[in-house]
Each structure stands twice: as structure tokens, then as C-alpha cells.
Design goal:
single chain; 63 residues; alpha+beta; 3 strands
Length: 63
């Protein structure tokens, strides 16, 4: 049960930040990212591929 609470705290209490070469590309609440990822798995995989190819940095910050 504690693991479920930790995952829910991570999803609803943090932000996803994607940065690359001195510029911030994405700064969204984590729950929005999870919702978009679940709605389109293909879009999520393409996004991950672009992040890796262009060498961007991904951070999760607790709010």
C-alpha cells in the first residue's frame, strides 16, 4: 500500500522538465504527462526517441 501511495505522490506532486542546450522544452505537471502517455503510446515512444537522439536532459522535480 505504501508503494501505491508513493507512486500517486510522484504523479500528482511533481513536474516533468525536459531541457536541451540551454533551453527548456517541456515543463508540465507529471499527471498531464502520464495522461498523454496513456492516451497515445506511439506518441510517447516517439517523444522518448527524440529525447535520446538529441541528448536532452529529463528531470522530475517534486513540487
Amino acid at each position: 500500500m505504501e508503494q501505491v501511495k508513493d507512486v500517486l505522490r510522484l504523479i500528482f506532486g511533481s513536474r516533468l522538465i525536459v531541457e536541451g542546450r540551454g533551453r527548456t522544452f517541456v515543463k508540465l505537471p507529471m499527471w498531464v504527462c502520464v495522461l498523454v502517455g496513456l492516451s497515445s503510446l506511439r506518441l510517447a515512444l516517439i517523444t522518448v526517441l527524440f529525447v535520446v537522439v538529441f541528448g536532452m536532459r529529463v528531470r522530475i522535480i517534486k513540487a
